[in-house]
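Inputs:
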Amino acid sequence: MDLDVSTHDQDGIAVVSAAGEIDVFTAPQLDSELSAVTSGGQHRVVVDLSRVDFLDSTGLAVLVKTLKRVREHDGGSLAVVVTADRVAKVFRLTGLDTLIPLHPTVESAVAG
Amino acid sequence: MTVVGEQTAATLTLPPAAEHVRTARLVAVTAARRLGLDEQTVDDVRLAVGEAVARAVRRLGSAGVDDDIELVLRDDSGAFVVEVSDRAPGSTPDDDEVGLALVTAVVPDAEVAGGRVVLRWPATS
């Protein structure tokens, strides 16, 4: 089972949307999309996980790697859109929600 | 499912590939629901079993051992027990601290020793 990943620009911010389950098998797809975005010079990133119903530690590792990349640049930022409790819980348990802001909608994430 | 004494157990063997971790999660979730665990606990089962099997895939991969992973699901007098075993050598490093942190956060009784992870959720009354 694949993860669907796509990127669009919204108000100058790259919104990377994923749909499906993010685990040790599918996380490389998200990793390659986010790497392409940041390598392309876009360092303001929102990852939309509102259509993701499972996220494991490999998915978190991809986000941490992306956070490090965007922080190397002035004005760089990373925010995540999470709606499923199951997914939000993984951020809370690891404390990652203190490093990466979680938003209920893409609009609020883009607005910062 | 086979019945051994007072325990009900199912065993699943999986090739050591990342694509099969999802199968392990689905099987564990189905068994947990059948045992009547609440949905929040079922979410914990999904996460912890996924992390434990992903760990086994990584261990076998880094040791270069192409050997199946064994998943045993047991109903131990109402407690739900999942054992994940791999036969990677004892010296294989475990580099994923975040995965293990998640396991210990969502499993009331988790035991991780080399190639054997035992996850235990107590009986719900």
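The two ends of chain B are 23 Å apart (CA to CA). Flag for discussion at group meeting.
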